[in-house]
Structure formats: structure tokens, C-alpha cells
Amino acid sequence: MTTVESATASASGAAATDRFQADKSPFAAVKDVPKDRVDTLAHEVLSAVHATIRKHQVTYDEYNALKAWLIQVGADGEWPLFLDVFVEHAVEEVATAHRKGNKGTIEGPYYVPGAPERGAEGSTLEREESGTPLVWEGVIRSTDGTPLAGGKVDVWQDDNAGFYSQFSEGQPEWNLRGVFTVGDDGKFRIHTIKPQPYQIPHDGATGALIEAAGWHAWRPAHIHVKVSAPGHELLTAQLYFPGDDHNNDDIAQAVKPELMLDPQEQPDGSILVQYDVTLDPTS
Ligand code: MBD
Ligand code: FE
């Protein structure tokens, strides 16, 4: 049987917008941000826009092109995609600068809470999956070295064709997603496949900007992860593979040297990666 997979910008955009509104809108309401903060931030961003217009002598044609494009981003449901690709990395940097444990990076638009529990060792595959089998083993520890019993590793990634379940057609709902819960030793073992380099959806407004600017839409292959444990700060990260063409020009600027894996090819052609995670205690 062949499974046809596809993802249009508007379908994946709409799914990402629904996802955001279901999970995060309560935290995002402008009314919950103090007035002087909104005043400062809105004023500075608008002043930067005005300065750019003056510096580059922006025309009415260019202003109207911007207006049309902003309308299209909303129509395509692409605000989560656009913001997570071009803005989130700076927010993440500020939010996690104090940490002593693992480096994190952006979440991106395709996390879905509530993935199936898969034990301390298990597979994320919900169908026969082409691609290179990969096992990721590691230990969740606190900054003092103690293994964190009850810690959870929540992973999501693309398939061998570069698509995420729930943001494209043709995959089982929770394929290549799962929550792994560790015991007293803090150990987990995740059976999956090597992810593929990923082109963000580029047939919508975000893609139109990328093409108009002469950029590219690629992200290097990555495994997304959220690691949590009682009494510790949630770590959101992505793990990358050495040698990927896009490690040095990720469209989302989310690669960090600390997030590079050291894959060991096994005699059977599969890949073993060992990567431990250290979480900061909440203060
Ligand atoms: C992704 O898979 C991703 O990780 C980001 C940051 C943006 C779009 C799709
Ligand atoms: Fe991703």
C-alpha cells in the first residue's frame, strides 16, 4: 500500500492556529499584560518600523504590499508558523538565559499535548515506517546529578517524507509522537527513525515572503522534545545531526552547538544516540 502524504500551507496553518488557540490563548490575552509594558513594547516596535521606513524611503506600493501580505498571513492561518520561525528564537533565548541545565531551543508550531504514554522504553512508530531506525537513550537528571524519577520526555518529529502527523494528511494521529516516563534510574530509551531535513510549508504567505526575499525554507533534521520532572523547569529543545546541510542556515535560527547529537551507526545500519538531559530545579 502506498500512502500519499501532503501538507498545504493553509491546512497545516489552520491546524497550527487551532492548536494554539486551544492551548495557549488564555495566556496570550493582551488585557493580561500590564499597560506600561504594552505601551513600552508597542511604542518601540512601531518606532523601529518608522525608522526603517524613513531609512529606506519606503513607498506606498511597498506599504500596500505589506498590508496585503499581513492580511494573507492571517487568512492562511500562518501566524503561528511565521512567528515561531522568525521571532520565537529571541524569546526563548531571553526566557532561558538563567539556566544551568540543558540548553533549549524553540518549540515551533507543531507540538500537540496529550501524546500516548509509551513507558520508559518504547516506540513512537504507529505504522511501518521507512527511514533509518534510530534509538535515543538517555537519563533525566537534576543539576546536582540526581536522576529524576517520574520525569517525562515528550517527543515529536517528522517522518521520512518530511511531514508531521496532525499537520499533514496520511499518518496515524500520534505517529512519531509520544511521552516516555522514567523510573528511579531516570533512564529512557526511545525507538524512532532518523528525522529528515524539513522545508516549512511554503505555498502560503510565509513562503511568499521567503521567495520574494530570495531566502530558502529549510530547517535541518531535528527531533523536538519537551522534558519535564516534578519540581523542575520544563525544557523545550530540539536535537540535531552533524553534517546536515542546514545546520548553519536554519530558517528558524534554532540550532545551537549544545543540541548536536553524536550518532553512532550500528552494524545493522541503525543509529544509536546517547543524549542526557539536565533540568534546573524551580526556585
Ligand atoms: C517545524 O517543524 C519547526 O520545527 C519550526 C520551527 C517551524 C515550522 C516547522
Ligand atoms: Fe520541527
SSE blueprint:
Layout: H1 9-23, H2 25-28, H3 35-56, H4 60-75, H5 79-86, H6 88-96, E1 121-123, E2 133-142, E3 152-157, E4 177-181, E5 187-193, E6 198-199, H7 205-213, E7 218-219, E8 222-228, E9 235-240, E10 264-265, E11 271-274, E12 277-279
Parallel strand pairs: 1-5, 2-11, 2-12
Antiparallel strand pairs: 2-5, 3-4, 3-8, 6-7, 8-9, 10-11
The structure holds 3-methylcatechol and fe (iii) ion (FE).
Structural domain count: 1
Oligomer: single chain
Gap between N and C termini, in Å?
A: 53 Å
Order of helices and strands: HHHHHHEEEEEEHEEEEEE
Identify the CATH class. Mainly Beta
The number of helical elements comes to 7
Total strands: the figure is 12
Poorly predicted residue ranges = none
Name the bound molecules.
3-methylcatechol, fe (iii) ion
Tell me the CATH architecture: Sandwich
Largest sheet: 6 strands, mixed
Mean pLDDT: 94
What is the assigned CATH homologous superfamily? Aromatic compound dioxygenase
CATH topology: Protocatechuate 3,4-Dioxygenase, subunit A
Strand fraction equals 15-25%
Overall, the morphology is globular
| DSSP helix fraction | 25-40%
If you had to describe this structure to a student in words, what would you say it looks like?
This protein has about 280 residues and is α/β, with parallel strands linked by helices. The chain has one domain (about 1-283): Protocatechuate 3,4-Dioxygenase, subunit A. The chain is about 30% helix and about 20% strand. The protein contains seven helices and twelve strands. It has helices at about 10-25, 25-30, 35-55, 60-75, 80-85, 90-95, 205-215, and strands spanning about 120-125, 135-140, 150-155, 175-180, 185-195, 200, 220, 220-230, 235-240, 265, 270-275, 275-280. Strands 1, 2, 5, 10, 11 and 12 form a six-stranded mixed beta sheet that branches. Strand 8 (about 220-230) and strand 9 form a beta hairpin. The longest helix is centred in the first third of the chain and has 22 residues, at about 35-55. It is globular and about 60 Å long. The mean pLDDT is about 95. Bound molecules: 3-methylcatechol and fe (iii) ion. Fe (iii) ion binds next to strand 8. One of its GO terms (molecular function) is ferric iron binding. One of its GO terms (biological process) is catechol-containing compound metabolic process. Its cofactor is Fe(3+). Belongs to the intradiol ring-cleavage dioxygenase family.
